[in-house]
Amino acid sequence: MKKRNISYLWVCVLLYLYTMLAYSPLEFQALYTLVPAAFGLSIIASDNKYNVYMKLLFCLYGWILLSWTSAKYTDLATAQLHQILGCILFTVPVYHLAKKHKYVYWAYGMWVLFYVVCVRFAMNNIMSISFNFADERLSQESGGLDGNHFSQYTVFLTFILFIFGEFCDNLKYKKYLIFSFWLIIPITFYVSIVTASRQVLLIGVPLIASLLYIRYLKGSSTRNKTQFLLIASVLALMLFARFASTYENSYLAQRNQESIEEDTRLTLLKNSFEVGWENPFLGVGPGNFCKYSFNGYNAAHNSFGEIFANSGFPALIIYVAMLWIFINRQRKRYRYSQDKRYLMFLIFGLFYTIDNFFMSFHTSPRLICFFILLATHAELYYKEEMNKKYLIK
Asked: Would you say 71 and 310 are in contact if contact means Cβ atoms under 8 Å apart?
């Protein structure tokens, strides 16, 4: 047991080192040394038992591998398989950490550290006090960190800070964590403007509102609800006054003026499902949809269309099943126990699923791994609560 604890500790160290080297000249070397080492150590230290989410993820990747045989552009298919290999190498050690109460919060901490690295990278590349919001957008041209991913990491950080506040028993630390969650609210609006990301407004803002409802309104007295709504209204007005003029002069404001019909993502979503229905069993091959899209170079820009078009209907069913099982389990557990923490996990599952219409999550190590982390944490919490319930006192 002691040797296993030492191995888990080294898994944390290796993953944290890799995270610290993100967007640095040494990132490539770290990817092919530190991550495989963490993967190998986690396999040695663990019992190698996988929950339903990991099993379905392995099935999804197995079917995507099979769909390689239908690819016309094998170079693109092979490139996506390399991405999937990276997802497996990164997700497995994080999954094994998330199964352990002692290490699950260290796994969350890795995402907090990663966000700090992203902010530092962005500030050193394109952000300045005189930043012109109308002319620039945080994009892939900045050297690897694009606006969509930065926005998504902000959404993840929001949820992590809420989780820390909900699971922290130390009242002193809990106050700081709750304050940190409130601090992320103006940061969310700032990031949406800097990245010109409508995704943050469509996902991040409703998510924050839902989490605030869980913490301050659900089950509270009328007096407390009134006090909270008054304070929240004042803060919202202050926030609006601060960001209104900045928003009006931003590229985000220009993008929001576009009609839905002009949005390329909607066209790609429709296009990807058309291609998928034409090739329902194995699709057109991993990473190949971009060659069949309406303009001949865009990916689907959403998980569901990308999976369906590239790997067929079976792959889509597997991915949807993974998300549905998580959502349905949290719904049933909350309905049975009325424990707000299950409601918190349920809210995450719903917003994560909706978010999949805006980006391809299944081929990004940090995006798909975050779902596995949350899902495994939910299972860990359920197991611990059941042990308490049936404990002989």
From this structure: no
- Is the Cβ–Cβ distance between 300 and 272 less than 8 Å? yes
Cα 99 to Cα 272, 319, 381: the distances in Å are 36, 22, 10
- Distance separating alpha carbons of residues 41 and 34, to the nearest angstrom: 11
What phi and psi, each to the nearest 5 degrees, are found at residue 176? -65, -40
Is residue 112 classed exposed, middle or buried when 0-12, 13-18 and 19+ CB atoms within 10 A define those classes? middle
d(CA 14, CA 92): 13
Contact between 53 and 325 under an 8 Å Cβ cutoff? The reply is yes
Statement: residue 76 has pLDDT above 50: yes
What's this model's pTM, rounded to 2 decimal places? 0.89
What HEC string does the chain produce? CHHHHHHHHHHHHHHHHHHHCCCCCCHHHHHCCHHHHHHHHHHHHCCCCCCHHHHHHHHHHHHHHHHHHHCCCHHHHHHHHHHHHHHHHHHHHHHHHHCCCCCHHHHHHHHHHHHHHHHHHHHHHCCCCCCCCCCCCCCHHHCCCCHHHHHHHHHHHHHHHHHHHHHCCCHHHHHHHHHHHHHHHHHHHHHHHHHCCHHHHHHHHHHHHHHHHHHHHCCCCHHHHHHHHHHHHHHHHHHHHHHHHHHHCCHHHHHHCCCHHHCHHHHHHHHHHHHHHHCCCCCCCCCCHHHHCCCCCCCCCCHHHHHHHHHCHHHHHHHHHHHHHHHHHHHHHHHHHCCHHHHHHHHHHHHHHHHCCCCCCCCCHHHHHHHHHHHHHHHHHHHHHHHHHCCCC
The 10s digit of each residue's pLDDT in 249-284 is: 555 555 555 544 456 778 889 999 999 999 999 999
Q: Cβ distance 320 to 379 under 8 Å?
A: no
Cβ atoms 264, 300 nearer than 8 A: no
